Amino acid sequence: MREYAPRRDRALQSLAELASEALAVSSPPNLRYLTGFTGEGLLLLSKTPVLITDRRYETEAQEETSGCEVVAADRGHLASLVEALRTQAPRRLAFESESLTYAQYLTLRDALPETELVSTTKLVENLRLRKTAPEVELIARAAAIVDGVLDAMLPALAPGPTERQVGFELNRALIEAGAEDLSFTPIVAGGPRSALPHATLSDRVLHSGDMVVLDLGALVEGYCSDITRTVMLGDPSPEFVERYRAVQAAQRAGIAAAQPGRPVAEVDQAARQVLIDAGFGEQFSHSLGHGVGLEVHEAPTLSARGDYALEVGNVFTVEPGVYFPGWGGIRLEDLFVLEETGPHRLTNACQARY
Amino acid sequence: MREYAPRRDRALQSLAELASEALAVSSPPNLRYLTGFTGEGLLLLSKTPVLITDRRYETEAQEETSGCEVVAADRGHLASLVEALRTQAPRRLAFESESLTYAQYLTLRDALPETELVSTTKLVENLRLRKTAPEVELIARAAAIVDGVLDAMLPALAPGPTERQVGFELNRALIEAGAEDLSFTPIVAGGPRSALPHATLSDRVLHSGDMVVLDLGALVEGYCSDITRTVMLGDPSPEFVERYRAVQAAQRAGIAAAQPGRPVAEVDQAARQVLIDAGFGEQFSHSLGHGVGLEVHEAPTLSARGDYALEVGNVFTVEPGVYFPGWGGIRLEDLFVLEETGPHRLTNACQARY
Q: At residue B157, what are phi and psi to the nearest 5 degrees?
């Protein structure tokens, strides 16, 4: 994928609208998006971009990037950035206010009294919202990996192992299936622990009669996938079936609503209303979904508070869930890329039939 | 470990020296250090502390913490913090300038016009520098896990597998040995790739005649360990042996210098001088070591630029290395806790004999 120079050009266009000649890129995924560099560092984005790292990553910086001067010094990234800025001397320097810390801001302000600092948010993130075909291809590969792992493991899931053991098997299977890493530590939450939407792996043994929430993702060339399934070990109670079907219906409603041009708050509401009508509105305690790309949680967030209208090229999850403390939880999550004709499903692993 | 309330008291004492009544804690390890909470959130540290999270982590927040009011709302952590601050109305609010982003700073400033914001650095980090006995015990347990894994795996390491496969075996073995997680993705770098101090796992097959750098760590109740070994697959060349012994000698010199009261720059220099004298000064391209605790890299950094004098209770690595692009690299890393009598070694896995 050699899209880096055009991406930098687009970012420079956004910068020009802010009357700034340069942007200090401090967000790691934005750095990778604009350069391909996988190490730690900063980017001084300008007509003559400078990639700043240290000697630990010098080789990677040279091999992975092109079109940027590489500075790999031992004095600290911010000190190297100041050095490069003294050379380029932009009148107005934009910075990423959501990743630059206040302490780093003070350092830049004090070191560059002649430069006006311009606080920006989401300048590069907005470019990342719409994925290109090569990006979707990588996400689809990451999705195919979680699909394959779940298709192989879910039908065989049975009482006996601990959550941690199942999590570790998922980990092993994802790497063996070609993931360069996990996009996050898997969630395997059984019985009452499934009521924790972000449970960590515990040593609790999975029992017959447990519902089990499995939430996992793979990483392919830096791009993430994300999927959740809920299964019942043993015979599902009528109560479980009722709640499971309500979550399924909510997911279907969310998917149907996720059309180009549709405000994310309406998409969230479409799914939420199904659960409210079923009497589970209070138990759906998070937003409907999130964007996925170089980060496993990125824009757009599908939530009641969002003010974004979906666009072709967005990649996002649709993942309603209901959580009953003491009883358990049910969540279903799939990954989609938005096309002209609507959401195209990227995850297809077996849905349990209840 | 129930040290949380006394830790908060010590942090409040540091705050009083800044004439501030409250501290907004945004650094995740600082949050965990002061409360025990393992989820995502913020802490308003004051005489009546408020732990701020969201409904995803509500159960964990209630179970893991005591002595704090818990707020678990859906409006966003910073908005909840503003809410809590409007109630407590401190005249001066300290914040952690190295973890609060500039955007978050602007939000606080604009929402709280009556409150003076006081930028702080390392207020809680300074408390974390000196580990207590229960903390050292957890780090020692994490160190014993990497020791056991290396003692079992290193003698059997042979040509054939890829770096990624070996990395995965390390991962599996660490979890099976009781690590709750890894403290970082292991490094397994063979042949010329060992010249990259922070190589990622690749699909390169390990060959006879490769030197292999293995760098790994385990996590126990949030506390990290960190260790590196370098081994030669097959017969070591005289060149390898010379360089290996130089790194060993540098490590011994660094350990000997790491005494209570000794400035970290002198400790770094003691090891560095050995490599300079051996003609490898240029090839030792990073600092000598780093603190280890709730973070795998934390204070104190053992580097030429550091201005800290070692204290009893510090836990840190001593890890000289030499890196020759095209040839390979050699790094040896061990973990120590500083006692009155000098550094006590926490990692003891087999050192290869060359």
A: -65, 130
Residues of chain A positioned with their CB less than 8 A from the CB of B101: 97-102
Alpha-carbon separation of residue B35 from B13, B55, B176, B294 (angstroms)? 17, 18, 28, 13
Confidence of residue A343 (pLDDT cuts 50, 70, 90): very high
Angstroms from B311 CA to nearest CA on chain A = 25
User: What pLDDT does A74 receive?
Assistant: 79
Q: Do A97 and B106 touch (CB under 8 A)?
A: yes
- The secondary structure of residue B337, as a DSSP letter, is E
How far is the alpha carbon of A98 from chain B, nearest alpha carbon, in Å? 5
Tokens at B275, concatenated: 């490599």
Cβ contacts of A184 on chain B, cutoff 8 Å: none
Going by C-alpha positions, the residue among A210, A215, A195 that lies closest to residue A283 is: A195
* A35-50 pLDDT, tens digit each: 999 999 999 999 999 9
Q: Do A121 and B103 touch (CB under 8 A)?
A: yes
Give me the architecture of the A4-128 domain, per CATH. Answer: 3-Layer(aba) Sandwich (3.40)
pLDDT-wise least confident of A83-97, A163-177, B101-115, B130-144 = A163-177
Catalogue the E-assigned strands of B56-175: 69-72, 92-96, 116-120
pLDDT for B160 beyond 90: yes
Instruction: Reply yes or no on whether the pLDDT at B351 is more than 80.
Output: no
Nearest CA in chain B to A106: B97
Contacts of A6 (CB under 8 A, 6+ apart): none
**A17: exposed, middle or buried (C-beta count within 10 Å: 0-12, 13-18, 19+)?**
exposed
DSSP summary character for residue A230: E
> Average pLDDT in the A159-188 region?
92
- Contact residues on chain A for B283, CB-CB shorter than 8 A: none
Length of chain B counted residue by residue? 354
Using the 8-state DSSP alphabet, how is residue A263 labeled? B
Instruction: Report the C-alpha gap between A157 and A75 in whole angstroms.
Output: 52
What DSSP state is assigned to residue A162?
B
Residue at token pair 């002198």: B266
- CB contacts of B305 in chain A (<8 Å) are 75-76
Burial B174-208 (b: 16+ CB within 10 A, else e): bbeeebbbbbbbbbbbbbbbbbbbbbbbbebebee
In the CATH hierarchy, which fold is given to the domain comprising B133-345?
Creatine Amidinohydrolase (3.90.230)
Of B97, B164, B168, the CB nearest to A102: B97
For residue B1, the model assigns a pLDDT of: 53
Contact B319, B210 (CB under 8 A): no
Neighbour order of strands in the sheet with A42-45? A69-72, A50-53, A42-45, A22-25, A92-96, A116-120
Q: Is A67 exposed, middle or buried (0-12, 13-18, 19+ CB in 10 A)?
A: exposed
Q: 């072709």: which residue's tokens?
A: A312
CB contact under 8 A, A285 and B172: no
Give the whole-angstrom CA distance, residue A199 versus residue A206. 14
**DSSP label at residue A3:** -
Contact B101 A106 (CB under 8 A): no
d(CA B27, CA A106): 18
C-alpha distance from residue A172 to each of A179, A183, B112, B145 (Å) = 10, 13, 49, 20
Tens of pLDDT, residue by residue over B183-232, are: 998 999 999 999 988 788 888 999 999 999 999 999 999 999 999 999 99
The pLDDT value given to residue B203: 87
Domain locations along chain A: 4-128, 133-345
A134's CB contacts (< 8 A; 6+ apart) are: A1, A3
pTM of the predicted model, to two decimals? 0.86
User: Considering only CB atoms, which chain A residues are within 8 Å of B168?
Assistant: 172, 175-176
Record the tokens describing residue B28, joined without a space.
């995740």
